[in-house]
Amino acid sequence: MQDLTIAIVGATGAVGAECIRVIEQRHPKLRHIKLLASARSAGKRITVNGRELVVEETTEKSFRDVDIAFVSVTTEFSRQMCPIAAAAGAVVIDDSSVFRMEPTVPLVVPEVNGADVEWHQGIIAIPNCSTTPVVMAGHPLHQVNPIRRITAATYQSVSGAGASAMAELREQSRAMLDGGQPSPKALPNQIAFNVIPRIDSFLPSGYTREEQKMFDETRKIMHAPGLAVSSTCVRVPVYISHSAALHLEFERPMSPEEARELLGKMPGIKVLDDPANGEYPMPWDVAGTDEVFVGRIRKDQSHPNGLVIWVVSDNLRKGAALNSIQIAEELVNRNCLKPQPSHPASDALYNNSYQSPAGGEQGETFEADLAFFKANREQFLKDYLGKWIAVINQTVVDSDAEFDTLARRVYAKHGYKAILITKVEAEPGVVSVPSRRLSGR
Ligand SMILES: NC(=O)c1ccc[n+]([C@@H]2O[C@H](COP(=O)([O-])OP(=O)(O)OC[C@H]3O[C@@H](n4cnc5c(N)ncnc54)[C@H](OP(=O)(O)O)[C@@H]3O)[C@@H](O)[C@H]2O)c1
Asked: How many A from CA of 76 to the centre of ligand 1?
């Protein structure tokens, strides 16, 4: 990691500043660092790893020779600049919601689905800061007893809305204590001495975009397309760290003791659960730490298969900067900084989930499928000329849904070696998917 050239785009913002702190803590020898922001901040000086660096305006030319760009800017600027940075050869790790649900963009929390970095095409997204603690706490439990439903009520700090919202809480609190009136700007309503049951805009469903993000992103990261998720996301007058009360409904009952043990073994989780002695996680204590803290673990008395837990994590660190830097470390450790080539048929596999399915069937080798393909070539030319197909266990798969179902079964049972994928053309050519790229379970 220390030999790479990185760019921190949005270096003057709340997440960018935290990104600098995390770099200093985890990679103090990293030397080649570019700090980028808007023209407003150009010329500002910030010390990183003992060297004073000058913030530059972000332009299309900023990404020459950059290996990894950590992008934490506005949604609009992410939309504009990430593809440019990726085209210039940088791997982009983006904090915005713009690319998260794109089929070709991995959405990654390394402790949960680190292997998904392997199929990136130049852009990797991190989840919303309220989703990260949900998947971190849900994942180790889901592995042994599938979660059917998550209901969440969040208590999200103002730093989740950026540096200007932090300033707003401070200014409004001061003004109101002095007998003045609050004037909301960065947030939609008064935040001092109040809570706002609204984060982001409302959708026709009645949910907010923030709540919809938790639904979509949790399913994508946990590879659980059938998982039911419902949340109410609330802004509270707390500076840093998001909290959430999670009601988890499992396939079978799970005891609080078992949950405590599983959570205790999960990297990145810290169990703080001794209510009798006043021990439970709180945002003030958690701010500045790396772990997702879990406490108040108890049976849900309203459901036989239910558990209720309380999670708290620093939204600027694990919710944003730390997660981004862990993704970069994952890319380096897995030696996949360079994007893997993509093609339409294989995308169908990568973008769906590989939950452990019931059953399975005997898997044939890639060679047997290749022989089958060659033996039936005339028929394939007639049926599929110009189309992408996959051959799995000597069965032709030419629709996304079928492809996913079969591949999932074969993969789950055999840790599949390779799947034959080809475009049927007059001149034969075969593309295989190496196992490395099928490891996103
Ligand atoms: N805060 C969180 O907990 C959190 C968690 C996960 C994801 N995110 C996401 O991370 C991103 C940044 O959030 P934040 O909280 O750090 O926001 P912020 O404090 O408002 O900072 C925004 C940064 O973007 C820069 N910027 C804005 N417009 C720009 C432009 N046109 N060109 C170049 N740079 C520009 C700003 O530079 P100037 O200072 O020069 O204006 C600043 O450095 C957002 O997409 C947010 O959704 C945030």
From this structure: 10
CA 260 to chain centre: 24
Q: Which of 275, 300, 333 is the last residue of a domain?
A: 333
Positions annotated as catalytic residues are 129, 242
- Report if residue 213 sits inside a domain: yes
Q: Is residue 165 located within the same domain as residue 273?
A: yes
What residue type is 339 in one-letter code? P
Q: What is the pLDDT of residue 368?
A: 72
Q: Report the separation in Å between the CA atom of 77 and the middle of ligand 1, taken as the mean of its atom positions.
A: 9
**Ligand 1 site, CB within 6 A:** 10-16, 37-38, 40-41, 58, 72-75, 77, 95-96, 129, 159-160, 162-164, 315-316, 319-320
Q: How far is the CA of 19 from the centre of ligand 1 (A)?
A: 12
User: Taking residues 90-115, what's their average pLDDT?
Assistant: 93
pLDDT of residue 226: 86
**Full domain range(s) for residue 286:** 131-315
Structural domains in the chain (count): 3
Answer yes or no: is 339 within a domain: no
pLDDT at 349: 43
Q: What pLDDT, on a 0 to 100 scale, did the predictor assign at position 13?
A: 94
**pTM for the full predicted model:** 0.81
Tell me the per-residue pLDDT of 172-229, one tens digit each, with 9 for 90 and over.
Answer: 999 999 999 998 999 999 999 999 999 999 999 999 999 999 999 999 999 888 899 9
Tell me the residue type at 132: T
